[in-house]
Write a structure and sequence with these properties.
Number of helices: 20
Largest sheet: 2 strands, antiparallel
Strand content: under 5%
Number of strands: 2
Structural class: mainly alpha
Number of domains: 1
Mean pLDDT: 88
Strand order of the largest sheet: 1-2
Distance between the termini: 13 Å
Order of helices and strands: HHEEHHHHHHHHHHHHHHHHHH
């Protein structure tokens, strides 16, 4: 059974989605229970899987037992395992919230199957060792994401869905062109094999590989919502119900960041010089544009959506330095930011449910009568801003220190300034919504809604308490990412188990 763990995170959500559609299609209560049970089983399997990956093992699953580079391989290392766990934890939290908050009409129109297919697409992207199949998983993500984004057919959702779909289809076109260029030059699509070929390319071949790298930077940048490809996000993520926007805000953009971490050091090692400089500039501008956009907002989820752009900038900063210390800092930051951002979206959803309002100027006095909600926001908000002793402090500190180590003082200063503006926007919500004058009626909420947010906030506290050992794990992960020799050997070596 353990030999098939690499495809379990893909097959299990697919099986669940099929069962939800065929067996429990008209039984919403059964769909809720089955979806929750499925995510719990998936998360348990990912913890078992991470036990192997955390020890440094690189697990390769060869579909049909065809050896690479001729066959399709699924690959998992520490970075894949971290992303799988993040996806599973945030999926559990948002599903707990959704069971209490999702309206019955959307549940009847296949919210739970679409959610499972989204999980399948994300997990497939994290596990594939083939760049064409990365494109395939991006398409699975696009289809399920568009379905969830427009689920319910409200005018605001449809307005947000059209640019989302159009831009992602354009990104898919660029992705296919990049894949075609790589295959035309190298004759391979296996990422480990490409690592060996692209380093030796010269002349026209090297030029075409550089063009492919530029196209993939556009594709992954669009998925990650970095400047200037972010403009679809502030309108898109607040449009669907909170359950969907929380999962999107927490995990979806990280697929683009993961793809950069995986593909650039592995497939384009010769291009990492100009790629790094480009990522540093784009990251710095993303930080400033995102945080300044957030400061100007009054609508809760739109404010948090602008912060996604800002926080992705930190990840680009860490990756763009292309050192073990900086990439380790980016990995730690991604873990912190994923859980905190998803938690803040869920907290915003609770605030909207209680008051019936989505503007910080129309919500007030929540500290009275809702101490748990106030506590959750206080921890998550200060953590996002990077104040001690919360996880965000350690995450931002390691990013800034990595910048200083490489004498990139200007970019590090941008990161520090962005943190101050982030604190300002969080304090604006804290002051107006929790301590402001009480306005309007208070509506009842479900403990399930608090359960998801509390799970993620507690995870953030654990990150702060265990910052030192978790930084060590991030450091080991960064070494695997930037020194892919073991990855290449594991994928291209002699077959050692796999699909039959």
């Amino acid at each position: 059974m353990t030999a098939h763990l690499p495809i379990f995170p893909i097959v299990w959500p697919l099986v669940t989605a099929v069962m939800l559609l065929l067996v429990w299609r008209h039984n919403i209560a059964a769909q809720r229970l089955a979806s929750l049970a499925s995510v719990l089983v998936l998360l348990a399997g990912e913890f078992v899987f991470m036990g192997r990956l955390g020890a440094g093992e690189i697990v390769v699953y060869r579909l049909g037992n065809w050896a690479a580079p001729f066959g399709i391989v699924m690959m998992a290392d520490r970075l894949s395992g971290i992303m799988l766990l993040l996806t599973g934890v945030t999926a559990l939290a948002t599903l707990l919230f959704g069971i209490a908050n999702m309206d019955r009409d959307r549940e009847r129109h296949h919210f739970y199957p679409l959610f499972q297919l989204l999980l399948m697409g994300m997990n497939g992207a994290f596990l594939t060792g083939d760049i064409f199949n990365l494109f395939v998983w991006f398409e699975v993500l696009l289809i399920s994401s568009y379905g969830l984004l427009t689920l319910g057919g409200e005018p605001r959702q449809l307005r947000a869905g059209i640019p989302f779909l159009a831009l992602n289809l354009l990104g898919s076109t660029f992705f296919l062109v990049a894949v075609a260029l790589l295959y035309g030059v190298t004759g391979s699509l296996n990422m480990a094999h490409l690592h060996e070929i692209t380093r030796a390319a010269t002349g026209t071949g090297a030029t075409m590989i550089t063009v492919a790298a530029i196209l993939l930077l556009l594709v992954f940048g669009l998925k990650a919502a970095i400047f200037p490809l972010y403009f679809w996000l502030p309108d898109g993520y607040p449009a669907p119900p909170v359950t969907i926007s929380a999962f999107f805000g927490g995990v979806a953009t990280k697929v683009g960041v993961y793809s950069m971490m995986r593909v650039f050091p592995l497939v384009f090692p010769a291009q990492n010089g100009w790629l790094g400089e480009t990522l540093l500039v784009l990251g710095a501008v993303s930080m400033l544009v995102g945080v300044l956009g957030a400061v100007c907002q009054t609508e809760l989820r739109r404010l948090l959506s602008f912060h996604i752009v800002s926080q992705i900038g930190y990840l680009m900063f860490g990756l763009g330095l292309f050192s073990v210390a900086s990439v380790a800092a980016a990995i730690f930051y991604m873990v912190h930011y994923t859980v905190v951002k998803c938690a803040l979206f869920l907290i915003a959803g609770i605030m909207e449910r209680i008051t019936g309002q989505n503007s910080v100027k129309k919500i007030g006095g929540l500290v009275e009568g809702f101490p748990l909600l106030a506590t959750l926001f206080f921890i998550a908000g200060l953590s996002l801003a990077g104040l001690p002793p919360w996880s965000g402090f350690f995450a931002k500190l390691t990013i800034v220190m990595a910048g200083f180590q490489q004498q990139r003082y200007g970019f590090a200063a941008v990161a520090v300034v962005t943190g101050f503006f982030t604190l300002f926007s969080m304090m604006k919500i804290w002051h107006l919504s929790f301590w402001g004058e009480k306005a309007g009626e208070r509506r009842p909420t479900s403990p399930w809604m608090y359960g998801g947010a509390a799970l993620l906030v507690s995870f953030s506290v654990i990150l702060a308490v265990g910052a030192k050992p978790l930084n060590a794990v991030a450091h080991d992960t960064a070494q695997q990412v930037l020194r892919p020799g073991a990855y290449v050997q594991a994928v291209l070596g002699a077959p050692a188990g796999g699909g039959n």
